[in-house]
Automatic annotation (TrEMBL):
<dbReference type="InterPro" id="IPR017853">
    <property type="entry name" value="GH"/>
</dbReference>
<dbReference type="Pfam" id="PF00128">
    <property type="entry name" value="Alpha-amylase"/>
</dbReference>
<dbReference type="InterPro" id="IPR013783">
    <property type="entry name" value="Ig-like_fold"/>
</dbReference>
<dbReference type="Pfam" id="PF16657">
    <property type="entry name" value="Malt_amylase_C"/>
</dbReference>
<dbReference type="InterPro" id="IPR013780">
    <property type="entry name" value="Glyco_hydro_b"/>
</dbReference>
<keyword id="KW-0326">Glycosidase</keyword>
<dbReference type="InterPro" id="IPR014756">
    <property type="entry name" value="Ig_E-set"/>
</dbReference>
<keyword id="KW-0378">Hydrolase</keyword>
<dbReference type="GO" id="GO:0004553">
    <property type="term" value="F:hydrolase activity, hydrolyzing O-glycosyl compounds"/>
</dbReference>
<dbReference type="InterPro" id="IPR045857">
    <property type="entry name" value="O16G_dom_2"/>
</dbReference>
<dbReference type="GO" id="GO:0005975">
    <property type="term" value="P:carbohydrate metabolic process"/>
</dbReference>
<feature type="domain" description="Glycosyl hydrolase family 13 catalytic">
    <location>
        <begin position="135"/>
        <end position="493"/>
    </location>
</feature>
<dbReference type="InterPro" id="IPR032091">
    <property type="entry name" value="Malt_amylase-like_C"/>
</dbReference>
<dbReference type="Pfam" id="PF02903">
    <property type="entry name" value="Alpha-amylase_N"/>
</dbReference>
<protein>
    <submittedName>
        <fullName>Alpha-glycosidase</fullName>
    </submittedName>
</protein>
<dbReference type="InterPro" id="IPR004185">
    <property type="entry name" value="Glyco_hydro_13_lg-like_dom"/>
</dbReference>
<comment type="similarity">
    <text>Belongs to the glycosyl hydrolase 13 family.</text>
</comment>
Length: 580
């Protein structure tokens, strides 16, 4: 047994309260090294009569390690615990201090979860687990009110450029709300809608005003109310890392320099503020002069931004915030932000834009979730670019999954493209079947999926600005078959809870292979999903204990023979079967 590979630590993703009564324990071992793991657990004050051994199951495996998990409901909400590791006849007991060859005589040196204090339990919004998000870039979705078009607005459908306008607005979203309802969408994420100079609005001029080209407070209230009537939640984009160059405090700073009362609202390295050799003399987002970085530790800045965060929830009844460049803002600001937001609307969704491993922000005191770009990258690597085989893909997902507590994974924001990336269909070189296979994985994986506006009707586009083209509203130019595919997939996800929050297990993900078989299972259903990520048909066989199955799309019955389920899939085919 390779003890050097064994790892556990209290709290974080290794020992956490899933709810007010339940503790999840995890431990890591070398892949295929340990044959069985049990948690030795009990109450430290009545150890002798409460001690028990709880078998652990293999939660996931990556290239190097196996990850084991068990669930314990302690009678008195506290837990002393260690682990029994077995490899054939070889046994080790793991304590907080040592590996022992005999069971420890008392619990003094075991690990401990001191007490499940309800206020410390990380609760993510329950509605997010069942959400299907739709991302809208307002300037390019629909022009519902030409009267508010900015000067120089171009005819709808032209070539998108970094600095042109087509007149999209909030009224346009209202006008096309039936499109979202027909699709089955129940949550919308808007990129920024507050006053700014650009078409993307990430250079905020006034955090307390809707950009006039999009409408006003009444328009937003009307939109949110209509969405809520249809069971659609609404989250807005908060750009709190930086403002725009036309933000009043920065305008004052540009005018008055070191004498400005707002000079400490920003990070100034040198006066007068300027751009030297392409680098501003003040901190910005990237090196963009239009976007000066805000000092979110400054009391006045903090007060202003937190007031804005609260205002839009109170006034417009929005359901949460997506936080731009969230990892460049100080943690203390986000802790206060969470208290303010959750104090007004406890089930508001707080979503951070972070493209990497995000544990420091996902400990229950800051965000509910992050935009899950590690998931995006793994899916694109396997389904689109072919740079991973099935085993490497499964390993990548496992590594990511075990980083976080279950409640974080259940609320993860799983996207395949956005306003910051090339569109999925373009990434697939127009291969719609390949695109659909990637989307089917997205919709059958743990977390909440997000559709970038227009993907559902075949919109294409390369990186910004190509990915920000106008939505196509002429149905004769829409891919209605693709729309029907998305609608059916959303309906299936809503129908079967196993596809949302059920356990996930790979039954087949082999080195060198382009096929996958995995299950999603909860107390009501077990669904096995076959995927052929290849340009030609393929027979896929997998061992299953159940004999009778039904295709959840067609209703056709399928039988396993001698414990083997065999399916022939077309190129880029997918079959989902439910055990009967």
């Amino acid at each position: 047994m390779l003890l050097e590979a064994v790892y556990h630590r209290p709290k974080l993703n290794w020992c956490y309260a899933y709810d007010g009564r339940t503790i999840h324990l995890r431990i890591r071992t070398k892949r295929n090294d340990v044959t069985a793991v049990s948690a030795m657990a009990g109450d430290k004050y009545i150890w002798d009569r409460s001690k028990t051994y709880v078998p652990m199951t293999k939660l996931a495996s990556d290239e190097l390690f196996d990850y084991w998990e068990c669930e314990i409901v302690p009678e008195y909400r506290r837990l002393k615990y260690g682990f029994l590791l077995q490899k054939g006849a070889e046994k080790y007991w793991m304590t907080e201090y040592d590996f022992l060859k005999q069971e420890p005589e008392n619990p003094d040196r075991l690990f401990e979860y001191p007490f499940i204090n309800p206020v410390d339990v990380f609760e993510t919004p329950d509605w997010v687990k069942g959400a299907v998000f739709y991302q809208i870039f307002p300037e390019r979705f629909a022009n519902g009110d030409p009267a508010n078009d900015p000067e120089g607005t171009l005819p709808w459908g032209g070539t998108p450029k970094p600095d042109n306008f087509f007149g999209g607005d909030l009224q346009g979203v209202i006008d096309h709300i039936d499109h979202l309802s027909e699709l089955g969408i129940n949550a919308v994420y808007f990129t920024p809608i507050f006053k700014a100079t650009t078409n993307h609005k990430y250079d905020t001029e006034d955090y307390m005003q809707i950009d006039p080209q999009f409408g006003d407070l009444d328009t937003l209230k009307k939109l949110v109310a209509i969405c809520h009537e249809r069971g659609i939640r609404v989250i807005l984009d908060a750009v709190f890392n930086h403002s725009g160059r036309t933000f009043a405090p920065f305008v004052d700073l540009q005018k008055n320099g070191e004498k400005s009362r707002y000079k400490d609202w920003f990070y100034i390295r040198k006066y007068p503020i300027a751009v030297e050799d392409g680098i501003p003399t003040y901190d910005t987002f990237a090196f963009e002069p239009l976007m000066p970085k805000l000092n979110t530790a400054h009391p006045e800045v903090k007060e202003y931004l937190l007031k804005a965060a609260a205002y839009w929830i109170k006034e417009a009844d929005i359901d949460g915030w997506r936080l731009d460049v969230a990892n460049e803002v100080d943690h203390e600001f986000w802790r206060e932000f969470r208290k303010v937001v959750k104090g007004i609307k406890p089930d508001a969704y707080i979503l951070g834009e972070i493209w990497h491993e995000s544990s420091p922000w996902l400990m229950g005191d800051q965000f509910d979730a992050v935009m899950n770009y590690p998931f995006t990258n793994a899916v694109l690597d396997f389904f689109v670019d072919g740079t991973r085989d099935a085993r490497s893909f499964a390993n990548a997902l496992a590594s990511q999954y075990v980083r976080y507590p279950r409640q974080v994974n259940e609320a993860a924001f799983n996207l395949l493209d956005s306003h910051d990336t090339a569109r999925l269909l373009t990434k697939c070189d127009g291969n719609k079947e390949q695109m659909k296979l990637a989307v089917q994985f997205q919709f059958t994986y743990t977390g909440t999926p997000c559709i970038y506006y227009g993907d559902e009707i075949g919109l294409t586009g390369g990186h910004d600005p190509g990915c920000r083209k106008c939505m196509e509203w002429d149905e004769t130019k829409q891919d209605r078959e693709l729309f029907s595919f998305y609608r059916e997939l959303i309906a299936l996800r809503k129908k079967y809870g196993a596809l949302r929050t059920g356990s996930l297990k790979f039954l087949s993900a082999k080195a060198g292979s382009t096929s996958l078989v995995y299950t999603r299972e909860d107390e009501n259903d077990k669904i096995v999903i076959f995927m052929n990520n290849a340009a030609k048909a393929k027979n896929i066989n997998v061992s299953v204990p159940e004999e009778r199955w039904q295709d959840i799309r067609t209703g056709d019955n399928v039988s396993a023979h001698s414990g083997v389920l065999s399916m022939k899939l077309p190129a880029y085919g997918c079959v989902m079967l439910r055990a009967l």
